[in-house]
Amino acid sequence: VVDEAHLRARCRAFKEAFGEGAVLYAGKALLLKAICRIVAEEGLGLDVVSGGELYTALAAGFPPERLYFHGNNKSEEELAEALAAGVGRIVVDNFHELALLGQLAPRAKGARVPVLLRLAPGIEAHTHDYIKTGQLDSKFGFSLAGGQAEEAVALAAASNAVELVGLHCHIGSQIFKTAPYAEAAAVMMDFAARIWQQTGTVIRELDLGGGFGIYYAPGDEPLSPREYAAVMREVVAAKAEASGLVPPRLLVEPGRAIAGPAGTTLYTVGAIKEIPGVRKYVAVDGGMADNIRPALYQARYEALLANKADRPAVEKVSITGKCCESGDMLIWDISLPKAEPGDILAVSCTGAYCYPMASNYNRLPRPAVVLVYEGEAALIGRRETYADLVRLEVVPPRLQRRLAG
Ligand code: LLP
Fold this sequence. Notes:
The chain is about 30% helix and about 20% strand. The chain is built from twelve helices and 18 strands. The radius of gyration is 23 Å and the shape is globular. The site of ligand LLP has 23 residues, from helix 9 and helix 10.
């Protein structure tokens, strides 16, 4: 269930903090056509990372000039699609992509393709290993260490296919401190100053990525968009002044911080298994197929029994899903009112990286997505049916014959 007012409020908070045109919603967090339309209405840009995300945005009517096309292994087809659509920027990740653009862009109509170069600034963000991205040992971007980034700038500057507009980095996700962003801004600005002094290349846009942490469970202490904006701006302005650069336009790409808090997953309680003196398992009609995050990142969540929200917590239970995996746990040790089959368990802050990472493991159909706004509910993602589960399948005639016999 997506709370539209909350989603819009998060868009606005970022826009107010960073300014008009400075916020790109990272669509990987939650991308459905209806979400694209809300984000577009709120005046944000959109970061897409694949042909599929690009297709979704275009199908929703998202203005292509506000699209930033990301990805560490864009295929030739995806790049051609992005050029044909007229996306605002391509965020180039590697030398292979620069070469592909060199071949494709002259064939596409119009001027050179505006690009940002994604750099790996060599910064360790304090978050889960799987969602760190800015460190040297990363698959993403041109490394600052070792001169790759300089080489990429030189190639882009000399190319008649691309126009180097700016630089990008993304240091990781679910980050609660401003210091790693200050460090990233400083490293990126030092690099911008260096290439300006050495080659005269001017960096007009600096995109510092997303990663702003949200509250999931006690211990998570999110900062406001303003706090991040203030620190980033201060570092960019100081570095620009020190090196005589015009400060580049600052951009950010929040995904989780926009979609996460606006989403709630509703489950129905089914089987309950008590192992006396050990643990009580409360099973729900979903689990790792719709939320892989606890299994993948040891993510924590809070929940309540929606139909017993006014009752006191009386027992500690663990919430498990219905997949055939012992690791299919949603929440370990949560205090709830007495849970019974048929109760509705509402797990909060599931708006980001749940539905888009959902699978059909054990042939569980994906759940519906419902948008609520001013007392009304609207379906924005249909519940999958069993027929949907087999819609891509083909049984070769040879096997059909054998069965018929
Ligand atoms: N920009 C780039 C280039 C990114 O790679 C990402 C996230 C974002 C922006 C948005 O980051 P956010 O503001 O949402 O933290 N599946 C993981 C998170 C993976 C994030 C990947 N990149 C999770 O469930 O925690």
